[in-house]
Amino acid sequence: MRSPKCILVTGGAGFIGSNYLNRLVPRHPEVRFVNLDALTYAGNLENVAGLTDQPNYSFELGDITDSVLVERLFDLYKFDAVVHFAAESHVDRSITDPTTFVRTNVDGTIVLLQAARNNWKAGQGLFHHVSTDEVFGTLGPTGLFTLNSPYAPRSPYAASKASADHLVRSFGATYGLPYLITNTSNNYGPYQFPEKLIPLVLNNARQRIPIPVYGKGDNVRDWLFVEDHCAALEIVLFQGSIGSTYLIGGSQESSNLGLVKALLDVYDEKTGQASGHSQSLISFVQDRAGHDFRYAIDSSETQKELGWSPQHSLIEGLKKTVDWYMKHSSWLSNILDDSYRTYYKSQYDNR
User: Fold this and answer.
1) CB-CB contact of 317 with 223 (8 Å)
2) DSSP 241-284
3) Active site residue 157
4) Is the alpha carbon torsion for 318, 324, 329, 332 positive or negative?
5) Please, where in the chain does CATH 3.90.25.10 lie?
6) What is the SS3 assignment for 58?
7) Pick the catalytic residue: 57, 88, 92, 157?
8) pLDDT digit string (tens) for 150-190?
9) Residues forming beta bridges with residue 145, ordered by sequence position
10) What would the CATH number be for the domain defined by 197-220+254-289+313-342?
């Protein structure tokens, strides 16, 4: 088992990064965690507020594309590992503004890799790059993404993450940089910004406003509760084989429409409404450009090697998610500022 002493976690105030830090910081007091986040619209210090008094946790405000800052932090903290979450991650936004996705997801990754290369001798350190199953493109009605699946990204977001994956592997091959890559399916759970489907549905349901569903809602995703993902990432960090890629999926497939209906049934039950009450809010809108039909991951090799498996069924995960958002309604209200409302209108008002 590896024993890193100081880890740079990028994007640790975002959705998955904050869940990761909230899990690992108290469980590993022997490790110092430094959270570097630019606090863009999806990054929120409230997500990690419970860590501020932890002696092994520090927050640094900054952009991963700022090479001077990143080099200064490497010099200051003497990192021996990087866990790289920071990314623009919403497909719809990448269609509207692909340049920003290249800047953060590609340019930011190369800045981090160069800093690691400059500060670590060959064979030292560890660069863990957290990626997505969308780099593999789209599936038909059957089949799963495997470690042998070719890269075939179909959106600017997916292409930017695929580029980052290739850069990480190239630094391993060219400079001897120790790395790990994980590709995961659709995450959901606490602290997720409501541009993503599940918190968007919950936010609209509580406001009793239409819930947009693309096309006929028949696009299929494999859903993974974020706590299960972070448990896998923890094992990968300490036990994963250097130079390996691990696929992390929930094995919980659902069409978008089926997911929305199941989520609304849970919401109605939790709020004391009659079954099916909120389904009347569903509004079908024009499908987005290049909408991939289906994603699904075969994580059997990851489970076999690391002894990990997802612990939540989709319904169990949805219930915990609804409970969290109901308990943290003030968190949701605080992040829904005018910029989000403007973006929301641009995405759905004319569909």
Assistant:
1) yes
2) PTTEEEEE----EEEHHHHHHHHHHHHHHHTTPPTTGGGGGEEE
3) yes
4) negative
5) 197-220+254-289+313-342
6) strand
7) 157
8) 999 999 999 999 999 999 999 999 999 999 999 999 999 99
9) 297
10) 3.90.25.10
Q: Which of 54, 40, 50 is nearest to 10 (CA)?
A: 40
Q: Which of 68, 4, 3, 69 is nearest to 36 (CA)?
A: 69
Q: Which of 133, 165, 227, 268 is catalytic?
A: 133
Asked if 208 contacts 281 with a C-beta cutoff of 8 angstroms, the reply is yes
CA distance 97 to 103: 11
Residue environment code for 149-177, b if the CB has 16+ CB neighbours within 10 A, otherwise e: beeebbbbbbbbbbbbbebbbebbeeeeb
Looking at residue 196, the DSSP 8-state letter turns out to be S
194 and 44 in contact (C-beta within 8 Å)? no
What is the DSSP track for 59-86? Answer: EEE--TT-HHHHHHHHHHH--SEEEE--
In the chain, ranges of CATH 3.40.50.720 domains: 6-188+222-248
pLDDT single digits (tens) 252-304: 999 999 999 999 999 999 999 988 899 999 999 998 887 889 999 999 999 99
Report the run of H or E that residue 9 belongs to, with start and end. Answer: strand 6-10
Is 30 among the residues known to form the active site?
Answer: no
Q: How far does CA 142 lie from the centroid of its chain? A: 25
Containing 91, the helix (H) or strand (E) segment is helix 91-96
**How far apart are alpha carbons 255 and 324 in whole angstroms?**
23
CB contact set of 222 (below 8 Å; sequence gap of 6+): 133, 185, 186, 249, 250, 251, 252, 253, 295, 296, 297
Is CATH 3.40.50.1450 what the domain over 6-188+222-248 is classified as, yes or no? no
Is 133 annotated in the active site? yes
